[in-house]
Design goal:
The complex is a heterodimer of chains A (218) and B (122). Chain A has helices spanning 3-39, 49-77, 89-106, 126-142, 185-196; strands spanning 85-88, 109-113, 121-124, 148-157, 160-168, 199-204, 209-215. With 218 residues, chain A is an alpha+beta fold. Chain A has two domains: 3-80; 85-215, Histidine kinase-like ATPase, C-terminal domain (Heat Shock Protein 90). In chain A, the strands form two sheets. In chain A, strands 2-4-5-7-6 form a five-stranded mixed β-sheet. Chain A is elongated and about 70 Å long. With 122 residues, chain B is of the alpha/beta class. Chain B has a single domain, classed as Response regulator (Rossmann fold). Chain B is built from five helices and five strands. The relative contact order of chain B is 0.18. Classes of the chains: A alpha+beta (218), B alpha/beta (122). The A-B interface holds A 14, 17-18, 21-22, 24-26, 28-30, 32-33, 36, 40, 63, 67, 70-71, 74-75, 77-78 and B 12, 14-15, 18-19, 21-22, 25, 56, 83-86, 104-106, 108.
Chain lengths: 218, 122
């Protein structure tokens, strides 16, 4: 996709998430107002008071869920702002896991972030890096029939930063996970992304992992 | 608390009116307006204790309105309402003299605490 097309999608998404946030803010305040009114309403005069209170709480919880989603989507839309930015790998993994949890849930797979205790900040293209990770996750998800865990572990060794995307599947033989990998669309995309990032990827067949490596001198 | 007078400036009128109603229930007097000109007019005529101002406003934008309010009355505290994606603009607003900012959708208790702090700061 061309740069201006990515920029277009980013700007439209940022604008729409802003509007959705305003809708959620209004729902939150209106349900809050109803809660305020209920709190000063006598139970004798309103038999369904408790049912209304619990329903309003449910609305507030769903609003919170919606706010979290729109905030993360807004953050995602701003990945297109710069080709190079200071990227905190721990934060980026957290963000991507949040956005891709649904893809994993469909396959009963849980996504785990094995956060590094160190601050891992690298100057790179955040959009391309999230796309690289996303392709790894999709590749590994396609290899499971049902259930398991994918964990992502960011690390730094010297000037090299790496992200290890590792899977543990109980019902799938992980020793065959990289069989026929050369025809995988996800890995073809990953190759082209890693070229743009001046990085490489490799398989760790023993641990059923894909390892992305990027130089800190980018 | 009933002596506090708050001006809410937001083009999302439904939202502004509902926040106002909730503040009124808690004894805070409010006025709501939906654009910059009306906001300046209200600052001139009603002399509010605090202004709660949305950052993403049409026209000159929330920060433009903030500058105009500050040139009219440098001492009036302004609390910015901001979305997750416009946090940087709020930080810019703090450099322009805003008292503080709150994220939308805001927690009403947090907003009230900031309003009270703003009044004390005058």
């Amino acid at each position: 996709m061309k740069g201006n097309e990515v920029e277009f999608i980013g700007k439209i998404t940022a604008g729409v998430t802003h509007e959705v946030n305003n809708v959620l803010a209004s729902i939150r305040e209106i349900s809050g107002l109803l809660t305020d009114i209920l709190s000063i309403t006598d139970e004798k005069s309103f038999a369904k008071k408790e049912k209304f209170q619990t329903s309003l709480e449910k609305i507030q919880n769903q609003v919170q869920r919606g706010v979290k989603l729109t905030n993360q989507l807004n953050k995602f839309s701003h990945l297109t702002d710069n080709n190079k930015a200071d990227v905190d790998l721990n934060e980026l993994v957290d963000h991507l896991i949040f956005l891709t949890e649904r893809f994993a849930r469909i396959k009963n797979v849980t996504l785990q972030n094995q956060l590094s205790k160190d601050s891992l900040v690298i100057k790179t293209d955040p959009l391309q890096l999230e796309m690289a990770l996303f392709n790894c996750i999709l590749y590994l998800l396609n290899k499971t029939t049902n259930g398991g865990e994918i964990s992502i572990c960011p690390k730094k060794k010297g000037n090299e930063y790496s992200l290890s995307i590792n899977c543990k599947y109980e019902l799938t033989d992980t020793s065959t996970i990289f069989k026929d990998s050369s025809s995988s669309e996800e890995l073809l995309s990953l190759s082209s992304i890693m070229e743009k990032l001046n990085g490489v990827y490799e398989f760790d067949e023993t641990n059923a992992a894909i390892i992305i490596k990027i130089s800190g001198k980018n | 608390m009933d002596s506090i007078n708050v001006l809410i400036v937001d083009d999302e009128e439904e939202l502004a009116l509902t926040i106002a109603e909730r503040l009124e229930i808690r004894g805070i007097k409010t006025q709501t307006v939906s654009d910059g000109d009306l906001a300046l007019n209200s600052v001139r005529t009603h002399n509010p204790d605090v202004v709660v101002l949305d950052v993403m406003m049409p026209g000159i934008g929330g920060l433009g309105i903030l500058k105009q309010i500050k040139s009219l009355d440098p001492k009036i505290p302004v609390i910015l309402l901001t979305g997750y994606g416009s946090k940087e603009r709020s930080i810019e607003g703090m450099n322009l003299g805003a008292f503080d900012y709150v994220l939308k959708p805001c927690n009403l208790d947090d907003l009230i605490t900031k309003i009270q702090e703003a009044v004390k700061s005058k």
